[in-house]
């Protein structure tokens, strides 16, 4: 009997023994291609000697020191490097231990900014349906998945949700892609006006939606319009790049491809590549200075903020992503993966859409390709796909459709950036075996 809580499945899980490059091995010696890097985490694959050396070195120096007493070289160097690659205007970093913490810090910083600048009436957040921002209470409140929110709804900060920008599901036949993007972006303005023009402190969105919808980028022009609306009403734009950031979509920050700068951006997952738990919240000088020259203190903090060992690991990861050319490699391999998936499954009667950016790809499963009707969620197609892909030696991330039919079952692929051409064939073959069995 296992005493580990929680158990994610009723059946016993294999025990992980080791990892090497793009492969995971369980204790019985079975090999799995790491098709989703866990939850889009392991961008460098497993056993990276440089990252391991950086961690060992840091452990020999000093594993941990509290940030109220000391800063550390790894934290300072990592911050410098992140800022040197961040969108223009972003110039401060706050290191935490994961994605939810980064989003929680983002929300609190945005709220404190308005308290410090004399607008405490701004207490409402607007977010989007079909989104996930984490499981702590603030982050959970902003997430747009009704099932995840339901039990905790009475505990939540004031959040309302506008439509996602999800072309496959949302665009009507009568409108162009551009018109569609503007229509759903303009929902933000309508919602701000409905709530009161000076009541909203932040709008929260994932530039490329991850787990809830399966690698869905917004259409061109959408985020430009969102930025305009936020500026017009003085609302802070918080981008959640926890899953899609750190090179995953082919640029270090996903928002680079939208041509906009957020006020605050959250990253995690690929930032530590799984070697250490780490996340970060980055913000603009405007926000930082309001607090620095106001109360002088961001009213937040955790024991492991700026953890030196986590920062040392992350610095080694970021060096490989940027100086080592892995972000560009991700963009290149991502294009090849998309082509291969399209070639293999593009005409399949139950595959509705294959999408994404970089090595962040989603495959949406439908019962009827013509009408885009999803399978009945009760059939739990995603669970069968998870079982069969795993049996075929591919660990990937199938997710269920929503009960309201907003989206169907989908498979999320987020393999390591070090993957090679022959691995693309392997992924497609193994996926094909599972798809043939289940669909
Ligand atoms: N935001 C997004 C977009 C995510 O995908 C996730 C994790 N799946 C989170 C936030 C929360 O991150 P964590 O699980 O590290 O707390």
Descriptive overview:
The chain has 439 residues and is an alpha/beta fold. The protein folds into two domains: 16-48 and 325-438, Aspartate Aminotransferase, domain 1, CATH 3.90.1150.10; 52-322, Type I PLP-dependent aspartate aminotransferase-like (Major domain) (Aspartate Aminotransferase, domain 2, 3-Layer(aba) Sandwich), CATH 3.40.640.10. Helix content is 38%, strand content 17%. It has a seven-stranded mixed β-sheet with strand order 4-12-11-10-7-5-6, sandwiched between helices. The model has no long low-confidence stretch (mean pLDDT 96). Bound molecules: 4'-deoxy-4'-aminopyridoxal-5'-phosphate. The site of 4'-deoxy-4'-aminopyridoxal-5'-phosphate has 15 residues, from helix 4.
Short recap of the structure:
It contains 14 helices and 17 strands. The protein has 439 residues and is an alpha/beta fold.
Throw out a few tags for this protein.
439 residues; alpha/beta; Aspartate Aminotransferase, domain 1; Aspartate Aminotransferase, domain 2; seven-stranded mixed beta sheet; four-stranded mixed beta sheet; 14 helices; 17 strands; binds 4'-deoxy-4'-aminopyridoxal-5'-phosphate
List the SSEs and their pairings.
Elements: E1 16-20, E2 23-26, E3 31-34, H1 37-40, H2 49-61, H3 73-85, E4 90-96, H4 99-116, E5 124-128, H5 137-142, H6 146-149, E6 159-162, H7 167-170, H8 177-195, E7 200-205, E8 208-209, E9 216-217, H9 222-233, E10 236-240, E11 264-267, E12 279-284, H10 285-292, H11 308-322, H12 326-345, E13 351-357, E14 360-365, H13 381-391, E15 394-395, E16 397-399, E17 410-413, H14 421-438
Parallel strand pairs: 3-15, 5-6, 5-7, 7-10, 10-11
Antiparallel strand pairs: 1-2, 2-3, 4-12, 8-9, 11-12, 13-14, 14-17, 16-17
Helix pairs in contact: 2-11, 3-11, 4-10, 8-9, 12-14, 13-14
The structure holds 4'-deoxy-4'-aminopyridoxal-5'-phosphate.
């Amino acid at each position: 009997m296992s005493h580990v809580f929680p158990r994610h499945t009723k059946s016993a899980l294999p025990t992980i023994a080791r990892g090497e490059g793009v492969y995971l091995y369980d204790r019985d010696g079975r090999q799995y291609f790491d098709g989703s890097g866990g939850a889009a985490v392991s961008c460098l694959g497993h056993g990276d000697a440089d990252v391991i050396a950086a961690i060992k070195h840091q452990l020999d120096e000093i594993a941990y020191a509290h940030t109220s007493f000391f800063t550390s070289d790894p934290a300072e160097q990592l911050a410098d490097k992140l800022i040197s690659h961040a969108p223009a205007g972003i110039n401060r970093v706050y290191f935490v231990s994961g994605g939810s913490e980064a989003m929680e810090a983002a929300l609190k910083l945005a709220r404190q900014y308005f308290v410090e600048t004399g607008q405490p009436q701004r207490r409402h957040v607007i977010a989007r349906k079909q989104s996930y921002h984490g499981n702590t209470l603030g982050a959970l409140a902003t997430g747009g998945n009704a099932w995840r929110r339901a039990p905790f709804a009475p505990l939540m900060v004031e959040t309302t949700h506008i439509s996602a920008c999800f072309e496959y599901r949302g665009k009507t036949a009568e409108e162009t892609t551009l018109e569609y993007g503007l229509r759903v972006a303009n929902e933000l303005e309508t919602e701000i006006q409905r709530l009161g023009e000076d009541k909203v402190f932040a709008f929260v969105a994932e530039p490329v939606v991850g787990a809830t919808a399966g690698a869905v980028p917004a259409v061109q022009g959408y985020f430009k319009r969102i930025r305009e609306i936020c500026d017009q009403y003085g609302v802070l734009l918080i981008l959640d790049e926890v899953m899609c950031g750190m090179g995953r979509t082919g640029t270090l920050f996903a928002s680079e491809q939208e041509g906009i700068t957020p006020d605050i951006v959250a990253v995690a997952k690929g930032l530590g590549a799984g070697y250490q738990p780490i996340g970060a919240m980055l913000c603009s000088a405007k926000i930082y200075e309001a607090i620095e020259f106001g109360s002088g203190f961001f009213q937040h903090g955790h024991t492991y903020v700026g953890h030196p060992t986590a920062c040392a690991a992350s610095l080694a990861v970021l060096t490989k992503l940027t100086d080592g050319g892995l972000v560009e490699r991700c963009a290149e391999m991502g294009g090849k993966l998309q082509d291969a998936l399209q070639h293999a499954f593009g005409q399949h009667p139950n595959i509705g859409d294959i999408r994404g950016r970089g090595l962040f790809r989603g495959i949406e499963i439908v019962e009827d390709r013509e009408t885009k009707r999803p399978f009945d969620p009760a059939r739990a197609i995603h669970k069968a796909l998870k079982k069969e892909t795993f049996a075929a030696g591919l660990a990937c991330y199938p997710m269920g459709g929503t009960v309201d039919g907003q989206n169907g079952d989908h498979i999320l692929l987020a393999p390591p950036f070090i993957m090679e051409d022959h691995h693309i064939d392997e992924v497609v073959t193994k996926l094909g075996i599972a798809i043939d069995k289940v669909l």
